[in-house]
């Protein structure tokens, strides 16, 4: 490919300052369109990481830096920089990228599925440990499925009736796929509205494009049956939600037992479809040759040709960080599925216990480095490997942290949409499930705080001590301090009651937590930012009023629960103390300090505070350790958090 004059004269390594600068992304795009191979390659890297609209709206220049062993691309839309690797030409074996369009969109998932079914023992083994929903036998089937034998219409069958009438065997009906998609805000005239016997036939023309695309993918796989929630569960209407209450809790098992989940990742709503958009944002580029100056042992300099490698779309950006996977219900579907094929604007991604791959290189694609995604989607990755038999509560914290940022139309669904995952991992964790936390690590489970607090949800979702009670994303202190840990409270008892018609994994009507510890009183600014000063971090569970009437300092009741040390097996100088900020409820009285206390010892949680220097005079290891001991040695008080 030709090269523009600026790239021809400046792009070589290493270099001082930027070796190439574009005044804006539009200038870079224009130069790439003219045929410059370096500009085209840089355009590809940016398009694989940032949406084009965001790039076009970006103010500021794009810069390319050259170092001894790589190039680096920077622009205002990026947090940090993109590294462009190079390698010696004689070692390069990179294939020419091809656009994943046309017939290949349907062929690629079939090839991946056959590879997984024939060579991935870990994927066959996944369901053996991922315990099915209580009361669900491995042979249990979905209540209804879509039969794709008829090309001209959509046939929905009742599985029990088909078995009773010898129209299919259990083995036939277990061979089905599932669809994961976004409903969108458009009208839903295509949904199942009433129960039926044996089968129900609906016109194909009435189906949204996403469903039609899913039909095409499943047929190309050679599979007869498909499950879609809108067509296989009678959708709730005013005063009639019986089928939803019965089938909704079983959705996790439906995805868990399916052969493959098809994720319409690039479709914003059901009517948009996904096949035509798959690969639409793939920006083809060729590897670029450039020169590198190498210093020899004798001090002389030698120039050699190297290859600037093309970019592979990032799995986390294209899949995990997509609009589809921001939905809470979809996260459950993905976490429980044995295999998922993601149709994205950057091509098709495959995800199972043995492989993460992308098809831009043709054939079965290149394997994506699972290690790069590990910290970002911890339990999902762990859940697809044999290591999941050793799942611990910390892995649950990782998953819940990511899940807490998911979006919900109904905030009270935060626990319901997590219920099937909780049921599945309970036998592995081996503890009682308590409103999104586990009894065997409950104290550390209380160490959460809101990243960006939002207004209090209008409807009750969970007790205030649970992360599910807030409508914003949360962080766990336990994930930040991988160090020595000591607790200063004791769990006396719990009383978590599910809503009528559900169980302890679903919606919660009330939840009480009784703790024994030492209540303390601390003065905080009412509208403190996330980090008030170097030693004090205050996190409110709800958005605080910032009116002049609420701008001063006031006394709060706090319950210290833990200490973390980064220095070793003792709580020394480098120590963080954590406490829950409480607000009394019910009848109250004023104590000697003028702080309201609950007569019944009942409180609601309103925030979390961390401080690494509880008293400005405490600088020594001994003083800090003694202060921590005071909390443990004072006469404890039992409090109930609701």
From TrEMBL:
InterPro entries: HET
Organism: Microdochium trichocladiopsis
Any Pfam family hit: HET
Domain spans labelled Heterokaryon incompatibility: 176-333
Name of the protein in question: Heterokaryon incompatibility protein-domain-containing protein
């Amino acid at each position: 490919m030709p090269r523009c004059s600026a790239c021809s004269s400046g792009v070589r390594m290493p270099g001082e300052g930027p070796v190439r600068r574009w005044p804006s992304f539009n200038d870079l795009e224009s130069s790439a369109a003219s045929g410059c191979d370096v500009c085209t390659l840089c355009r590809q890297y940016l398009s694989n990481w940032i949406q084009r609209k965001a790039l076009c709206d970006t103010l500021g220049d794009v810069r390319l830096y050259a170092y001894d062993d790589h190039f680096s691309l920077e622009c205002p839309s990026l947090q940090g920089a993109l590294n462009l690797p190079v390698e010696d030409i004689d070692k390069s074996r990179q294939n020419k990228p091809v656009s994943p369009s046309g017939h290949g969109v349907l062929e690629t998932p079939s090839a991946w599925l056959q590879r997984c079914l024939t060579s991935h023992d870990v994927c066959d083994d996944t369901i053996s440990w991922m315990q099915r929903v209580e009361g669900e036998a491995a042979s249990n089937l979905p209540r209804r499925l879509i039969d794709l034998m008829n090309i001209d219409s959509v046939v929905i069958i009742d599985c029990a009736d088909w078995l009773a009438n010898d129209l299919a065997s259990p083995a036939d009906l277990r061979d089905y796929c599932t669809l994961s998609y976004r409903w969108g805000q458009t009208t839903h005239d295509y949904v199942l509205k009433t129960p039926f016997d044996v089968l129900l036939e609906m016109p194909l023309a009435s189906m949204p494009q996403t469903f039609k695309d899913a039909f095409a993918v499943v047929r190309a796989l050679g599979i007869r049956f498909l499950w879609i929630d809108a067509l296989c569960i009678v959708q709730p209407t005013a005063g009639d939600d019986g089928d939803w209450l019965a089938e909704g809790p079983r959705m996790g098992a439906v995805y868990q037992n399916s052969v493959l989940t098809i994720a319409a990742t690039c479709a914003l709503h059901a009517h948009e479809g996904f096949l035509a958009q798959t690969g639409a944002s793939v920006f083809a580029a060729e590897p670029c040759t450039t020169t590198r100056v190498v210093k020899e042992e004798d001090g002389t300099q030698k120039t050699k040709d190297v290859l600037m490698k093309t970019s592979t779309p990032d799995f986390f950006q294209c899949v995990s960080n997509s609009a589809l996977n921001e939905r809470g219900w979809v996260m459950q579907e993905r976490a429980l599925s044995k295999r998922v094929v993601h149709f994205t604007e950057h091509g098709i991604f495959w995800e199972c216990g043995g492989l993460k791959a992308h098809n831009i290189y043709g054939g079965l694609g290149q394997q994506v480095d699972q290690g790069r995604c590990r910290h970002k989607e911890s339990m999902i990755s762990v859940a697809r490997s044999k290591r999941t038999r050793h799942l611990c509560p910390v892995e649950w914290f990782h998953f819940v942290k990511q899940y807490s940022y998911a979006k919900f139309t109904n905030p009270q669904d935060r626990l319901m949409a997590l219920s099937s995952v909780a049921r599945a991992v309970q036998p592995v964790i081996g503890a009682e499930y308590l409103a999104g936390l586990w009894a065997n690590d409950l104290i550390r489970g209380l160490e959460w705080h809101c990243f960006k607090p939002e207004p209090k949800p209008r409807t009750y979702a969970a007790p205030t001590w649970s992360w599910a009670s807030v409508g914003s994303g949360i962080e766990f202190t336990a994930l930040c301090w991988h160090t020595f840990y000591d607790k200063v409270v004791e769990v006396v008892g719990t009383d978590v009651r599910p809503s009528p018609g559900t169980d302890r994994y679903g919606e919660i009507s009330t939840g009480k937590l009784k703790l024994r510890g030492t209540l303390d009183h601390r003065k905080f600014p009412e509208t403190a930012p996330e980090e008030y000063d170097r030693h004090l971090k205050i996190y409110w569970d709800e958005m605080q009023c910032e009116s002049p009437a609420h701008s001063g300092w006031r006394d709060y009741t706090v319950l210290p629960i833990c200490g973390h040390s980064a220095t070793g097996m003792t709580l020394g100088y480098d120590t963080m103390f954590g406490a829950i900020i409480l607000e009394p409820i019910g009848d109250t009285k004023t104590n000697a300090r003028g702080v309201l206390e609950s007569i019944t010892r009942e409180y609601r949680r309103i925030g979390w505070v961390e401080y690494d220097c509880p008293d400005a005079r405490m600088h020594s290891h001994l003083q800090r350790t003694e202060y921590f001991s005071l909390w443990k040695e004072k006469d404890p008080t039992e409090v109930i958090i609701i």
